[in-house]
Amino acid sequence: MSDMNQVLMNLLMGGQGGGNVEQMLNENDDLDPMTRMLVSQALSGSRDQADDENDEDEDDRPSRRRRAIDRLRARFEIMQQQIEDMQWQIEEMEDQNEALAAALGACYLCWGEDSECPECQGKGKPGSILPDRSLFRKWILPAVRTAQAAAQQRLKHKTDSKPKPEEPKNA
Fold it and tell me: Does the pTM of the predicted model rise above 0.90?
């Protein structure tokens, strides 16, 4: 079982050994920041609930624990769905970034702005390589045509709005 799975299992088991979960979070440097934040939030919520539960009668402990576990599981499912949604959005944006970079003939990692880029060493600005013809037609040409049409409209509007020179009056 991975460290992350172990952290989540400890969390879902009713916060048993909450200190162990916190210790695992502190010791596990390879957790991504988003996961670390979500687990920390879940832990703080379970600590708040535990404080509230300590104030109640001890006769009700098993059912309170069950409710706390159910709430944590529900939170976990929501957070897991949010993470999946964010990962999907990131993948979609990466795909669009790669397509646009190819359409412009640019490095898909840094667009020529990172001298330490493993792909282009900072030399991948738009136009640095031959653009992908079909992607250029799909993504760039429509924008160029719209910009040209707008420029022609402005030019036509300027010439139409200029006052016409008056003809000389014959005496």
Answer: no
> Hey, is 165 helix, strand or coil?
coil
Kindly give the residue spans of alpha helices, DSSP state H, lying in 13-138: 18-27, 33-54, 61-104, 133-135
- Residues 68 and 62: their CA atoms lie apart, in Å, by 10
For the chain, count helices (H), then strands (E). Answer: 6, 0
Q: Are 101 and 120 in contact (CB under 8 A)?
A: no
pLDDT digits (tens, 9 = 90+) for 30-83: 666 777 676 677 666 555 555 555 555 555 667 888 888 999 999 999 999 999
Which two three-digit tokens encode residue 37? 């934040």
End-to-end alpha-carbon separation of the chain, Å? 104
* Residue tagged 């210790």 (tokens): 23
